[in-house]
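Q: What structure does this chain adopt?
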Amino acid sequence: MRIICPCAEIKYLTKKDGLLSVMNRYSLTTPQQNIWNLQKTLSDTGISNLCGAAFWERPIDVKIANKAINKFIELNSGMRLQFDETEHGVVQFVSEYTYTEFPIMSFNSEQSLERFALKFVSEPFEMKKSALYRFVIIDLNGMSGVLACLNHLIADAWTYSLLAKELWNFCLEFESNHFPEHSIHGYTDFIDSEKEYFNSERFRKDEAYWTEAYMERPETCHIKIANKSVVNPIAKRYSMVISGDCSEAINEFCNQNNISQAVLFETAVFVYLLKVNAGNNRITIGVPVLNRNSKNDRLTAGMYVSTLPLTIEIAAEDSVFMLCKKITNSHRAVFRHQRYPYSRILRDLRKTHRFEGNLYDVIVMLYNKT
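A:
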């Protein structure tokens, strides 16, 4: 697997209107490189596509909805990132903004919308020199909304929350003809900050932390033993709604013991993995980290999120409460060193311990929908 040197900047001269202008091209950030590698491996699938729908509080004129989507794309240059493979490796650049008329569709049920969305998200994007977003303005039995398919190279889950909030604000502005001044948010700021990080004392401290954390060769933690030589990338969603009594009991336990719900669910996963990985009491799961380290990062559309290993040594005498506390303390340490790329952790493990495969099969994430 070829790893591109992080965030090298390349300048190209392009001709426009008889003049030569400079176009900045950048290599991929670490979160983007992981997505690019995954998409290249499964190039005929939409494995790196994200899809979601946002509905507004009341009906919105479709022309205003279209203007709102365009405004979001215009103000977030990360939405306009395009990619190319050159002799220098994979590079990205910000394409010029052009106003787009997005399609409009009506649905008479949530089921029909979901069927369309599944097809909508499964279609792969053209990865080279092409827009990596698709929008449809939708009407669902009188409810107005937007269905968005964004490639993971330009978006993460936080981007979708940002998109839903900003589209509503822009709709209100266009309805009232009141246009306050907006800042332009650029993902290239994150590219620059990552470049600075790799040359910083902070990076060296993070590297030392992860080297010490895996001084001993870790065991892999499987959720089950694979019995097929070919792994199918298509997943199925299983959903379960817990009862009100169970929810109240969970909240009461967490409040009384000053434990987050995420940690409690992680504890359950750790106990399960302990039981199915006989003889291994050092259990590892993956935990997503937001990786947005400034206010500007939190206001910018783009691919920031990464995943890091969380390894816990479980003793026979550990109670649920003790295990929760171990996980809480480990979370704090991981979050303090969250900028260090998981790909480098694996690289170092393979070099030092001849480690193969992945550290974990399971990622646990608690998403607060409110």
